[in-house]
Amino acid sequence: MISNTTFYTVHCRTMWPGNWCTVTEAVAGLLVMLLFMSYASAEVATCCDGRQNGALCVGPLGGTVCVKLVDSVSESQIYQIKHTSSIILTIKKNDVILGPLQNKYLFIPSKGTFSISNLSLTDSGEYVLDVFDSDGKKKEYQTLNLSLEAPVTSLRLIAECLSEGQVKVSCLSEGGNNPQYSWTLNGNKPSGRELLSGNIESNTIVLRPNVAGRLVCSVRTKVSSLLKEKITSTCDFVNCTSNGIHISKWVFKENNTLCVEPSPETHSIMAVLLPIMSGAIGALLIILVVSIGIFCVKRKKPNHKEENNYDQKRSNAGQGRRREELSKETQAEYGKVKKQPRLSVDMTYGNMDNSLYGNVDESIYANL
Question: Which of 255, 288, 314 is the last residue of a domain?
Answer without folding.
Answer: 255
